[in-house]
Amino acid sequence: MWRWLHPYAKPEATYHLLQKLLPWFVALTLVTLVTGVIWGLAFAPGDYQQGDSYRIIFLHVPSAIFSMGAYMGMAIMGAVALIWQIKTAEWSIPAIAPVGAALTVVALLTGAIWGKPMWGTWWVWDARLTSELILLFLYVGVMALYFAFDDARTGAKAAAILSLVGVINLPIIHFSVEWWNTLHQGATITKFEQPSIATSMLIPLLICLAGFAFLTVSLVMMRLKNEILRHELHRPWAQQRLEQD
Amino acid sequence: MAFDSFTDFVAMGGYGLYVWLSFFLSFVVLAGVALETLLAKRQLAKKSKQLQQRQERLARRKASRAEVGDGNESKT
Questions:
Q1: Which residues of A have a CB under 8 Å from any CB of B?
Q2: Assembly ipTM
Q3: Which domains are present in chain A?
Q4: What is the pTM of this model?
Q5: I need a labelling partner for B8 at 20 to 30 A (CA). Which of A127, A128, A154, A211 fits?
Q6: For A47, which DSSP code?
């Protein structure tokens, strides 16, 4: 495995791999997101309690899950950057953080808009909402720290450490609905028992989940390509690449 | 189809404002990230071109200086 992985420590090799994979991921993103959203909005049945307001779930749950998934990915890259000093891993931190922050914003916004008709309030300072807001601050903090040093590699190291420390927030977000009393409902699909949702709603939700997964990966790949080019701009291969596309 | 008519679909059982607002804002945020990424790429291409032009200019100047002679020959 190491023999296979090792060439990708070279930024140029990673770039070409990303270049090859990206069109497929973009295509998968478009197909799954469009299918999932149309299915969720128009074809899934209404909820017997929440009526049609529950359709926000098709954005809210996927964005919330991958706001945490992206953070996990960023922290793993942070660990790789700290342990093996691989530059591409360092550059993936500023590639992932804005995407994760955007997903967190989407989760918070859709949650607030869903909360207004169902709970009667846009926002409460309860455990689930507050810990998700802290996730947004962590993303912002990681980005700020990354760019806060004159020496880019020191910044990358500091950001990597912060991203690793922030991992503690992920189980807090996930279990917040069990550990504390909250307005937010409990887990519906991310638990070990049978999902407590009707199949006719679960299928479009799973498609939307796949859509957000592909979207997250596609955006991160696009941004990582940019980061690689930014750092390799003085190299002929990067200049040629930029001229070609 | 969960709705009888297009009007019903837009109304979302009275929750139209909330449902459409959340889908609209989500689209704006995520498309914003994608757009920013594409613009950054274009910016990089511009920067790369400037860098190349500067390198060429420097190379040309060096070559012309060598032809005319810039006084360094006297050392030899």
A1: 37, 41-46, 51-53, 55-56, 59-60, 63, 98-99, 102-103, 105-106, 109-110, 113-114, 116-117, 215, 219, 222-223, 225-226, 229-230, 233-234, 238-239, 242-243
A2: 0.88
A3: 23-44+55-189+199-226 (1.20.120)
A4: 0.90
A5: A211
A6: B
